[in-house]
Amino acid sequence: MFIQNPNPEPGNPENRPADLAKTQKSPRQPAITYQTLVVAVILSLVLGTLGGAVAGLFATGQFDKWFNKTFSNKTSAPSDTTQTLSVKEESETVEVVKKVQPSVVSIIISKDLSKIYSQSGPYSFFFGPQPRQGLQQVGGGSGFILTADGYIMTNKHVVNDDQAEYSVVTNDGKTYAAKVVATDPFNDLAVVKIEANNLKSLQLGNSDALQIGQTVIAIGNALGQYENTVTKGIVSGLAREVTAGDGNSSENLSDVIQTDAAINPGNSGGPLVDLSGAVIGVNTAVSQEGQLIGFAIPSNEASKVFESVRKTGKVVRPYLGVRYVQVTQEIQAQEKLSVDYGALIQKGSGVNEPAIVPGSPAEKAGLQADDIILELDGVKIDDDHSLASEIQKHAPGDSVTLKILSGGKEKTIEVTLAELKQ
Predict the structure, then answer these.
(1) Tally of CB atoms within 10 A around 65
(2) pLDDT at res. 25
(3) I want to staple 420 with a disulfide (CB 3.0 to 4.6 A). Which of 23, 39, 194, 319 is the partner?
């Protein structure tokens, strides 16, 4: 009940809602409205019910469980999924590293420098005393164990010095003399052998199943001194074409994997693995111009090399016998060509690099400089299907059909591939 003001202010009608809020007050007994009583009754009922419920929880010993469920998890719930995924990936990475590390080795390159520089030669004149006698470490690389009896995969550029001696240091600190069994004339791969048994080997995975964005881990002897260095990243690109070199020589690599997992000098030959621990690439090169741009040879190529070595004791590769440049729109404009794809046969930059290798299948089939190979067995030669990669799908002795553009006219020829000699 509202008590109306008996003396309304001038200008304010008695029935104005604003005036209805004014009440008479006693110094000792404040006025209580009907609404206040209703709120008080409801509040007492709520508090009574809540008190009874809490008392019941205490009596049954469930208060702590109810309190934690109601209040403690409210703020952490939204991040549970993120935390779970993060912990899971970290756990997978740690487990993969534990699984793979025992199979990763360091390859030590040693030379007797005193045999290279004589005491009367330019070394002593310009650089002082002759190096001390005996083998000295001059470099290092990485590799990984393929079989329990000591076959190891690495890069060709790690073990291509005929004047050097090589040794392998395993994860447990043991050192073994290493023999270079075979090197790949087409790719930057090599197989070495140590005399050992019961070694833990790695499985070669299927690199054709790789997807861009997939998590990968690189392990190797970084900078030749930090053994079993682990870096992590993703697959940044597939089927890249790069030219890799060490200052003394260079090599064109096709269909390689690009990754942002840090690859440093000394990592060469180490494994690039997925989160199952399978090898999906052999680390081989890193860009000096960009950041975190590394390359690895696909594991399927490594598998072919190793199978060939086990069967024949060497790496058997087919070859056609041409030097070429991949035709692009830029090459088309530069050379004034009628097509923007294919392999344009051209001589190399060196004096002894003719467009057609003498005695090769290409010469026997009548291929000439400035011919453009458009297709091989119906596959268009372009950025996604290089001539080299298509040839490597075959074996020496296989016959392939080439569609070529010669003198402005298209024609088809048959060529029998031969074995590439080292």
Answers:
(1) 11
(2) 38
(3) 319
Instruction: Average pLDDT across each block of 10 residues of the chain; the chain has 422 residues. List them in order.
Output: 37 34 39 47 52 54 56 51 62 91 94 65 50 76 96 95 93 95 92 96 95 95 80 92 66 86 88 96 83 91 94 92 92 94 88 88 96 96 88 93 95 95 75
* Domain formed by 102-312, architecture: Beta Barrel (2.40)
Give pLDDT, residue 7.
Answer: 41
Q: CA 306 from chain center: how many Å?
A: 22
pTM for this entry: 0.69
Per the annotation, the verdict on 268 as an active-site residue is yes
Domain 318-419, CATH homologous superfamily name and number: PDZ domain (2.30.42.10)
Ramachandran assignment for 107, one of left (phi > 0), alpha (psi -120 to 50 degrees), beta (any other): beta
Location of each CATH 2.40.10.120 domain in the chain: 102-312
Determine which one of 103, 106, 142, 188 is catalytic: 188
DSSP secondary structure code for residue 322 in this structure: B
Of 83, 331, 330, 300, nearest to 203 (Cα)?
300
pLDDT confidence of residue 331: 93
Nearest Cα neighbor of 399 from 413, 385, 388 is 413
The answer to whether residue 274 is catalytic is: no
In which element (H, E) is residue 258 found? Answer: strand 250-259
Question: Are 345 and 412 spatial neighbours (Cβ–Cβ below 8 Å)?
Answer: no
Q: Choose the catalytic residue: 268, 308, 360, 386.
A: 268
Annotated catalytic, 188? yes
C-alpha distances in Å from residue 421, one per residue of 48, 142, 207, 316: 95, 26, 27, 8
| Rounded CA separation 284/286 (Å) | 7
- The answer for residues whose C-beta is within 8 angstroms of residue 253's C-beta and 6 or more apart is 187, 188, 241, 242, 243, 244, 284, 285, 295, 297
Domain span(s) for CATH 2.30.42.10 in the chain: 318-419
pLDDT at residue number 242: 80
pLDDT of residue 188: 92
